[in-house]
Design a protein that fits this description.
This protein is of the alpha/beta class. It has ten helices and twelve strands. Strand 3, helix 4 and strand 4 form a beta-alpha-beta unit.
Length: 269
């Protein structure tokens, strides 16, 4: 089916899905771009609909991707360039957008063993930062990302875009601080909170056990509740005039320190 009209009801509905309230009402997510859609399919994420515009393709594998989505049960809709530009979230669309159901995992769904590594993000505000944190988490092979008291929607299209599809490769749970505390106590997980007020440098702290690394908001860092709850506070030393790093940059540093330590102990290939 070729959609040529901007007034098509389906097109109007997709435009509405750029709004979080509309996405939550329908319990769906918008997935835009070749890599993100491919990642969703490769990780068993069911797509309901897929919209495509060959005039905007950047490569040669898009047709194969559409076929793969259709074989998985997605209903395909081809659009003109003008129509696709209308529904696209990106400034430079790649010609592929999928609609899929939201999947909500719980803390109890996460696998916990003696060397599980979790990333906990408190009240992250910027979708781009959360998406980048997911990308780093995938690279570090974390056991799960736990978003507590979020100020941004984990299904925000900018989270999907910044994650480069790793939203579909990493177990992610949205929960409250209280629920997390109960869960980590039940599973005897050691919590390490990053803060400039700490005395222990992050590279000097053992991260090879059952650990949750906790990072806070971009503006004020972790709340007192999280700092007081943590088993240990850790510091990323700063030698310039800036007193802190972007939260996604800090996440990458501490995650890959955990990776370094785990490699030394033979816990990672």
């Amino acid at each position: 089916m070729l959609i040529t009209s901007l007034q098509n009801p389906r097109i109007k509905e997709i435009v509405k899905l750029k709004n979080r309230r509309k996405r939550d009402e329908r319990q769906v997510i918008l997935i835009e771009g070749y890599k993100a859609v491919l990642s969703a399919l490769e990780n068993g994420y069911r797509l309901d609909e897929i919209y495509y515009c060959p005039d905007l393709y950047l490569g040669e594998n898009e047709t194969m991707l559409i076929d793969l989505a259709v074989k998985g049960g997605a209903t395909p809709f081809q659009t003109t360039k003008d129509v696709f530009t209308k529904i696209a979230y990106r400034d430079r669309p790649e010609g592929i957008i999928a609609i899929a159901p939201q999947i909500h995992q719980k803390l109890e769904d996460l696998t916990v063993d003696d060397h599980s590594l979790f990333l906990v993000a408190e009240a992250i505000e910027k979708p781009g930062n959360l998406g980048t944190m997911l990308r780093s988490s995938d690279a570090a092979r974390v056991s799960g990302v736990i978003v507590c008291d979020p100020r941004t929607d984990v299904y925000n299209p900018n989270v999907v875009r910044a994650s480069i599809g790793t939203l579909f490769t990493v177990p992610i749970v949205t929960t409250t601080t209280d629920e997390f505390v109960q869960w980590k106590d039940k599973n005897s997980i050691v919590t390490l909170a990053t803060t400039p007020s700490a005395s222990a440098i992050y590279t000097d702290v053992d991260m090879t056990g059952k650990v949750a690394l906790i990072l806070g908001t971009e503006q004020v860092g972790l709340s007192d509740e999280w700092l007081n709850m943590a088993d240990e506070r850790i510091l990323i030393p700063m030698y310039g005039q800036a007193d802190s790093l972007n939260v996604s940059a800090a996440t990458t540093l501490v995650l890959f320190e955990a990776v370094r330590q785990r490699r030394l102990k033979g816990l990672l290939d």
